[in-house]
Amino acid sequence: MKRLAFSISATLALTTSVWADGSDLLIIGNNDPGMLQRLTGTTDLESAETAFKERGAEVSLSTSADADAMRNAFRGFATGLDTTTVDIGVLLTGRFLSTIAGTYLLPDGMETPTLADVLTDGFPLDTVYAVAAEYPGQALIILGEVDGRSDLADGLSVTVPLNDIPQGVTVAIGPAGDAVRFVSRLSIATGEDVLPLARAEGLSLMGFVPRALPMFAGTDVTLPQITPDSPEDRSAEDAAAWNRAVSADTEAGYDTYLAAFPEGRFAGEARQRLATIRSEPFYREKQTETDLELSRDARREIQRDLSLLGYNTRGIDGIFGRGTRGAVTAWQNTNGLRASGYLDSDQIARLDAQAERRAAELEEEARQRQAQLERQDRTFWSETGAQGDEPGFRAYLKRFPDGIYAEEAQGRLDVIEDQRRAQAEGEDRRRWQIARETDTADSYRAYLAERPNGAFVEEARARIDYFINNSEQIALKERAQADEAALGLNAAARRLAEARLADLGLKPGAVDGTFDKDARRAIRRYQDARKLRVSGYLDQATVVRLMADTILR
User: Fold this and answer.
1) Residue 30 confidence (pLDDT) above 80
2) Which of 270, 274, 322, 459 is most exposed by smallest CB count within 10 Å?
3) Contact at 8 Å (CB) between 143 and 160?
């Protein structure tokens, strides 16, 4: 059940039934006076302290409580309980966050806690349960909630689980203002049954909920009497009203149901759903997207569309996490839509149309750039490699390592090298072979130092020049390899990528799912024409563009 987060925190504990000698009351207040005024009509907690003291209770008040203050205050209260205690009551109102280990009341001033902050400094609800469990049928716990931040760290939730309530313990839960008003009324009222007051303030009752819960009995003021239900069976009408409320699934719908059936069969659930709606500012938008039942593939397509339009979803995995929600929100802001972070069918259609148009624009830009690069390539070749000499081939490959004539230039150089190897004397060939096998700038420098007049001096200098001019590219290679591995592409996906590169005339070689040197060169050509990171390895941006290119063909 979804609950709200808050910015006030207060803790009250009520003990014994007649507010006489030996009664104890604990108040821990970490609240904003202005907010307390709006919620309860009072500016501080001293008025509650005074009212309880006038009833004969021993009151301990602590405000702006940090972690230690909350624990110390509760320790003092708990150690004061003894065999003379008849009834106990605890009110916790403030910001609650839940973890896998339980639910915690946050100390004053903790705005954006981490999981570690909550576990180490929060006040555990289980501690209250442990004490209350010693008084079955005589313990009342009141949980009041106040709205607060919803951008929580991993491992935290605003949900307050209510399935671990100890046997015989009654829990009343609702907004903090309602909870504080309930306790304020308790401070001046006496009677046989406190549950009507809780219901009158709109609190939901959980755990042990008897027909009556006689606590704090006395004669000063009589609690409101409940008119017995008509003997007429209204269960069918109740169910029909509930079905109408669920069908509407709006705040007004559940309010209408509660107005007609404040003690109805579904009253508790109605109040819980109201709390959920009020805690989620975009409840309707969220429900609308949920009703679409988007498949994992449909979500991936939405993420690809957003990525094409320049919105970073932090992955294309079909899971709508913070990255995707942030991207959707940014897209909605750009398009003048209600920025909820959730999509409806019309927005998905609009997003897809924009992405398809943008993909067409990007591909046209790529075609123009590719044509420009090819013109430059051919012009440069005519002045270098087309002359048919070694310097021309090397100059061309230095400028266009993946160019139109790269295979031809490299092949001609290989022939030249083979001829030199055949002509070179044995020691020169051996030293060159060592340098080639190591294939580092240092290995080629070592060759030049030992064989300054060797047959492979030009090749050695060219390789050294390559390492110097491509040091950044070489450094990025490992990261690019890791990015491609993270995509988890299977053989079918690799074949699809090769087929698309082949369709674009980029010569990836055999379409077999094996990314050999021809495929790597084709990927580099594709990336260069589209101003993507040129690595020869697939990354998320390259895959998004490849997918878009295919859609357009």
Assistant:
1) no
2) 322
3) yes
Adjacent-strand bridge partners of 90: 13, 141
Residue 553, CA distances (Å) to 74, 76, 91, 304, 503 in order: 70, 75, 66, 17, 9
The helix or strand, by DSSP H or E, that contains position 37, with its residue range, turns out to be helix 33-40
Give Cβ neighbours of residue 141 (< 8 Å, ≥ 6 apart).
89, 90, 91, 92, 128, 129, 132, 169, 170, 171, 172
Q: d(Cα 536, Cα 520) in Å, to the nearest integer?
A: 5
Tell me if 152 sits within 8 A of 158, measured CB to CB.
Answer: yes
Burial of 525 by CB count in 10 Å (0-12 exposed, 13-18 middle, 19+ buried)?
A: buried
CA distances (Å), origin 151, targets 93, 110, 314, 325, 460:
20, 13, 17, 12, 58
Are 303 and 319 in contact by the 8 Å Cβ rule? The answer is no
Q: What pLDDT shows up at residue 218?
A: 41
Which of these, 197, 192, 20, lies nearest to 91 by C-alpha position?
Answer: 197
| SS3 at position 93 | strand
CA distance 521 to 507: 8
The predicted-structure confidence for 43-81, as pLDDT tens digits, reads as follows 456 676 777 677 666 666 777 778 888 888 788 888 877
- Cα–Cα distance, 89 to 213 (Å, whole number): 12
Compute φ and ψ for 34, nearest 5 degrees. -65, -40
- 528 Cβ contact partners less than 8 Å away, ≥ 6 residues apart: 373, 402, 534
Residue in the structure block whose two tokens are 């709606």: 277
> What distance lies between CA 247 and its chain's CA centroid?
29
* Phi, psi values for residue 355, rounded to 5°: -65, -40
pLDDT tens-digit map of 102-120: 888 888 888 888 988 998 9
Cα(359)–Cα(370) distance, integer angstroms: 16
Q: What angle do CA 45, 46, 51 make, to 5 degrees?
A: 105
Q: Band the pLDDT of 203: cuts 50, 70, 90.
A: confident
Span 424-452, average pLDDT: 88
- Residue 178 contacts residue 101 (beta carbons within 8 Å): no
Amino acid letter, residue 361: E
Percent of the chain past pLDDT 70, that is, above it, reads 82
Which long-range CB contacts under 8 A does 213-216 form with residues at least 24 apart? 213/140, 213/170, 215/17, 215/87, 215/89, 215/138, 215/140, 216/14, 216/17, 216/18, 216/19, 216/87, 216/186, 216/189, 216/190, 216/191
Structure tokens at 534: 């040129």
User: Domains (ranges, CATH) in the chain?
Assistant: 10-226 (3.40.50.1460), 236-280 (no CATH), 293-358 (1.10.101), 385-467 (no CATH), 473-552 (1.10.101)
Looking at the DSSP assignment, which residues form a beta bridge with residue 14? Answer: 25, 89
